[in-house]
Amino acid sequence: MTDGAPLPQHLHFPLVLADLGGTNLRLGYLADPAADMRFLKKVKVADYPGLGAAMAAVLSEFGTPVRTAIIAFAGPVGGDDMRLTNHPWDITPKKVAGDVGLDEVILVNDFAAQALALPGLDAGELSQIGGRGPVAHAAKLVLGPGTGLGVAGLVPSPGGWVPVAGEAGHVELGPGDDDAEIWRHLERIEGRVTAETVISGPGLLRLYRAVCAAAGTAPVFDAPEKITAAAKDDPFAARTLECFVSALGRTAGDLALVFLAKGGVFLSGGIAPRIVPWLQAGGFRAAFEAKAPHRDLVAAMPVYVVTTAEPALAGLCALAKGTDRFAIDLSAARYTA
């Protein structure tokens, strides 16, 4: 954290902005601080041997010269070598800089990047799920089930908004009042059931298998998207979605208490925008608010589904453009070629 000195902190333009997850890599281009971001392409990480090769291929395709990369990274950031939480790529920022021909690489946690986007979102990019209006200058929370479960906070300070990254997706998660039998059948990850074990794309499939096992029936669907598509007609897929949104609501409510997120709780990632009717049906909000002795406090907090296409890239763009809304020190996250 800094004393509120405006960004950019001597960034070298043009920039490539990258949102790197366990499944996809999304790339944007920013020619200078006054320009609009240009979205380039989304590619599958499994199609490339490493990050440098993927970025170089896309940039070559578009003929876009760049000097700096700002990368939203799905995992803990720090050190000279890092690994994605849900993909076996090892990331060495200096090697990426050499592979792509960059002056420097800057890494930011992927959900910290999404948190940076929150102050700039407008009503057309959000779908509200209960609660009242947000409190100005109060903490915000973003979490998103996708390949994993990402979480970050955005808290106010005298110098501006401060993103708070963490690995809250890996905290323990127990069953709700009516889920105990289903939880008995859940696949454990190294002996644990975490929030991400259930509240993610792979978690949705684990939960469906457990629902079927508890009912004594064989599972039919083998992919998360098939479960969500069938939930209107298939009772086991429907029960899976009910359990999923309840678990998401319980976890979101717990984290809302941790951050005292009176500025709003924001649901992003690949799954939430596709299940808005299930989130609006009541089970999510009931689980979110069941936080005695602070039910009234949590009940007032608004929850929003983020419907804008690329929130992490939007957050990186806001950071790169030099807005004085943020108090963040990039020095520890910068790697030169």
- Unreliable segments of 5+ consecutive residues: 1-8
Largest beta-sheet details: 6 strands, mixed
Radius of gyration: 20 Å
CATH topology of the largest domain: Hexokinase, domain 1
What is the CATH level 1 assignment of the largest domain? Alpha Beta
Write the layout of secondary structure elements.
Elements: E1 15-20, E2 24-30, E3 38-44, H1 51-62, E4 68-73, E5 82-83, E6 90-91, H2 93-100, E7 104-109, H3 110-117, E8 126-128, E9 140-145, E10 149-157, E11 160-165, H4 180-184, H5 195-198, H6 201-215, H7 224-230, H8 235-259, E12 265-267, H9 276-280, H10 283-289, H11 295-299, E13 303-306, H12 311-320, E14 334-336
Parallel strand pairs: 1-4, 4-7, 9-12, 12-13
Antiparallel strand pairs: 1-2, 2-3, 5-6, 7-14, 8-13, 9-10, 10-11
Helix pairs in contact: 1-2, 3-12, 6-8, 8-10
Summarize the model shown.
The chain has helices at 51-62, 93-100, 110-117, 180-184, 195-198, 201-215, 224-230, 235-259, 276-280, 283-289, 295-299, 311-320, and strands spanning 15-20, 24-30, 38-44, 68-73, 82-83, 90-91, 104-109, 126-128, 140-145, 149-157, 160-165, 265-267, 303-306, 334-336. It has 337 residues and is of the alpha/beta class.
Properties at a glance:
337 residues; alpha/beta; Hexokinase, domain 1; 2 domains; six-stranded mixed sheet; globular
How would you characterize the overall build of this protein?
There is one protein chain. With 337 residues, this protein is α/β, with parallel strands linked by helices. The chain folds into 2 domains: 15-109 and 313-336, ATPase, nucleotide binding domain (Nucleotidyltransferase, domain 5); 122-306, Hexokinase, domain 1. It has helices spanning 51-62, 93-100, 110-117, 180-184, 195-198, 201-215, 224-230, 235-259, 276-280, 283-289, 295-299, 311-320, and strands spanning 15-20, 24-30, 38-44, 68-73, 82-83, 90-91, 104-109, 126-128, 140-145, 149-157, 160-165, 265-267, 303-306, 334-336. The strands form 3 sheets. It has a 6-stranded mixed β-sheet, sandwiched between helices. Strand 9 and strand 10 form a beta hairpin. Helix 3 (110-117) packs across helix 12 (311-320) and helix 8 runs parallel beside helix 10. It starts with 14 loop residues before the first strand and ends with a strand. Keywords: Kinase, Transferase.
